[in-house]
Amino acid sequence: MSSDRVSVQTYVPAGQRDRWREEADELDMSQAEYVRAMVQAGRRGFDLADGGDEPVSPDATPGVDGLKTRVLAVLEERGTADWNALLAGVTNDIEERLDETLEELQAENRVRYSGRQGSYTVVEDGR
């Protein structure tokens, strides 16, 4: 991969941009790093740094590591935290956001929940 950096532009609704800004701020990341990290996460493109156990974006902004900052903030706030507390602290409102998203997709008739199967499925052709 070349070390030359280039700009990529995209257009998103203002509300989405505002949500990304808020989430980037919560993670103590720049907007650019947040978008890069989310794209890489979506592509499952995380590598392990130097054989370590911490996933990082291959093109991360030097000196910026939002997850370390979040982990430290949780520990500083609580004093001690087990794995589940740390996970809850760094994922914040993901469960609430997932629930809201699933409700929206069901309202749009794009996803359906089957109680019998106990799972969600994509609705094909609005059926």
What does this structure look like?
The chain is mostly helical. It has a domain at 93-127. The protein has five helices and four strands, in the order ααββαααββ. The protein has helices spanning 14-26, 31-42, 66-78, 83-91, 94-107, and strands at 47-48, 55-56, 111-114, 119-122. Strands 1-2 form a two-stranded antiparallel sheet. Helix 1 (14-26) packs across helix 2 (31-42) and helix 3 (66-78) crosses helix 4. The protein is flat and about 45 Å long.
Summarize the structure.
This protein has 5 helices and 4 strands; from the N terminus they run ααββαααββ. With 127 residues, the protein is mainly α.
Question: What characteristics describe this protein?
Answer:
mainly alpha; 5 helices; 127 residues
Q: What are the secondary-structure elements, in order, as H or E?
A: HHEEHHHEE
Largest sheet: 2 strands, antiparallel
Report the C-alpha radius of gyration, rounded: 18 Å
Percent helix, as a range, is 40-55%
The N- to C-terminal Cα distance equals: 44 Å
Number of helices: 5
Low-confidence stretches: 44-54, 57-64
Number of strands: 4
Major β-sheet strand ordering: 1-2
Which outline best applies? flat
The oligomeric state of the chains shown is single chain
Structural class: mainly alpha
Mean model confidence by pLDDT:
75
Strand content: 5-15%
